[in-house]
Write the C-alpha cells for this entry.
Amino acid sequence: MAAATSSDRTARHLSTYVCPLCSPLHKNSDMAATDAACSAPAPALLEDFDAIVAALTPYAESDERVLVAIAGPPGVGKSTLAAALEEALPGAMAVGMDGFHLHNDVLDARGWRSVKGAPKTFDVDGLASTLTRLATAGPDSPPVVLPTFDRAADVSLAGAIVVPPPPQPSLIIVEGNYLIADDELAGPGWSDVARNFTASLYVDAQREILVDALLQRWRTYGLDEQAAEARALSNDIPNGDLVARSKANATWMIHRDAVSHAVKHDATALDDAALDAGG
C-alpha cells in the first residue's frame, strides 16, 4: 500500500470540517455551505478593515478603559490585524494572550508538549486575573505588566509589555485563540477570561486556507515537511476546530481575505514570523 502523501493527509482534514455552530454530525468540506445551513445566530459580519475601525472607534475615544477581543483559529492573522488596528486607532493598544503559555518544562512534565496551544497549556487563571486588572484599572492604578511570546525560541518572556493606567490607552485589543470560549468548551477558567471583554471580533477563514498558512508557517521556522504537517494537522487544526466552536459568542465576524486586502498584506504575509502561536 502506497504511503499517504501530503495532499492525501490534507484532503482528509478538509473533508471532515465540522461546522462550529451546529451538530458535530453536520460535516462538510465547504465552510460557507455548512455555515449557511446553520440556524444558530451568527455574529454581525463586517465587510472590511474600515468597518472594524468604525466599530472600535467609540471605544478608542472613550473616557473609560475597554477591552475588545480578537479571536480565531491559529494561522488566521489575528496578530497582524491587532497590530494594524493599534496603528489605525489613536488610544488603542494591542496585546496577545500567548505569553501565558506554560513553560515547555511544565508541559513536558505533564505530557502536554505535543498539544501545546490547547486550552490546558495556558495559565488561564493568570490570564483572567491580568485581564481583569486591565479592565478595572483607574487613573491611579499601577501599570499592568504582561508577558509576551517568543515564537523563534518557543517560550514566553516575562515582563515584556507594560500597559499604563487610563485614560490612555482607553482601548485594549487582546488577540488570542480562546478568548471568547467558555468553561464548557475550553475548560475551567475560560469564562472568567471572556467576561472581561466589552465586545469581540472573530476572524474566520476556510479550512484549506488555514492548512496552507500553517504549513508555510512551520516551514518558515525550519521544520521539514513531515514535521510541519504533524504540527499543523495534528495540533493546530484540531485546536482551530475547538476555537471555531466559540464563533457564535463574538460580537462581529470578518473573513480573513477581507482583512488581508485591507491591511495591504497578501494571504501569506498574515502568517509571517511576527505572528505568535495563536496568530
Observations:
- The first strand starts at residue 44 and ends at 45.
- The chain is about 40% helix and 15% strand.
- Strands lie at 44-45, 66-71, 92-96, 144-150, 155-163, 171-175, 199-204, 252-255.
- The CA atoms of residues 102 and 278 lie 14 Å apart.
